[in-house]
Amino acid sequence: MLIERLKTKYTQDDPILLAEIMEIMKDYSRQRIYQMISEAEQRKELVRYGRGIYYMPAQTIFGVSVPSLNAVVAKKYLQRGKEVFGIYGKTVIDLNFALSTQVPNTLEIITNNEKSDIRCIKMRGRKVVLRRSLVPITKDNADAYTLLELFRWMELKEYTETVREKIVQFIRAKNITREQVMGIADAFPSKTLSKMTICGVIYEIK
After folding, report:
1. Is residue 127 one of the residues assigned to a domain?
2. At what angle do helices 161-174 and 142-153 cross, to 10 degrees?
3. Cα-Cα-Cα-Cα dihedral of 128, 131, 132, 135, to 10°?
4. Nearest-angstrom CA–CA distance, 153 and 134
5. Domain termination residue (choose one: 43, 64, 85)
6. CA-CA distance, 16 to 102, in Å (whole number)?
7. d(CA 107, CA 119)
8. For 204, which DSSP code?
9. What is the CA radius of gyration of the chain?
10. 71 lies in a domain?
11. pLDDT score for 65
């Protein structure tokens, strides 16, 4: 029964949170749900990825499949369906805006789903840095938050023509408005908006 229901919402290798299993099986007691999870694990129909995270595995020529770390992190800390509650932090932002060319070994996440200012965890042997968001991140402000986070940490000497082009492309592709930026700018250090003004980026935002 458990696997049949999960298959109606998830495909193989989709990360599935324990809370989602509890919701889809809410007509059963918690004790019975845990029993069904255990039984599915014994049948190898369900695999525990980590604490509170499961998936339905696929058989490959290399053995049992495993979801990517990025998929698991995104599900737990960034977005679930249409609900957005986190963004990638500095290490990924630097890569996306040409401040770095090195794929980061450490994933940095800014999320509403973290109570500590900063906390380091390991997932499948890889370091993940979790930061509590300065303001609640939503679908409406996530892109503006990303832009402000970029300028929060970026040094002015790092601002090149290539970086400027990446930023302008991002602003236009995401339709970021000045209202979105100014609506959360007060939560960031004052130098953040100052650097955006010095670089002229603030004038690219309508």
Report:
1. yes
2. 160
3. -120
4. 14
5. 64
6. 30
7. 12
8. G
9. 20
10. no
11. 87
Residue 69, in any domain of the structure = no
**Ordered mean pLDDT values, 10 residues apiece, the chain (206 residues):** 93 94 94 96 93 90 86 94 95 94 90 95 90 97 98 96 97 97 96 96 93
Pair of tokens at residue 182: 């100014």
End-to-end CA distance of the chain: 52
Confidence (pLDDT) at 124? 83
- Same domain? For 38 and 116 the reply is no
Of 165, 98, 107, 104, the closest CA to residue 131 belongs to 107
Residue at 8 is within a domain: yes
pLDDT at 63: 80
What's the token pair of residue 178?
A: 């000045």
**C-alpha span between 137 and 184 (Å, rounded):** 10
* Residue numbers of the domain that contains 100: 76-204
CATH number (domain holding residue 56): 1.10.10
| Burial of 74 from C-beta contacts in 10 A (0-12 / 13-18 / 19+) | middle
CA angle 155, 156, 162 (to 5 degrees): 100
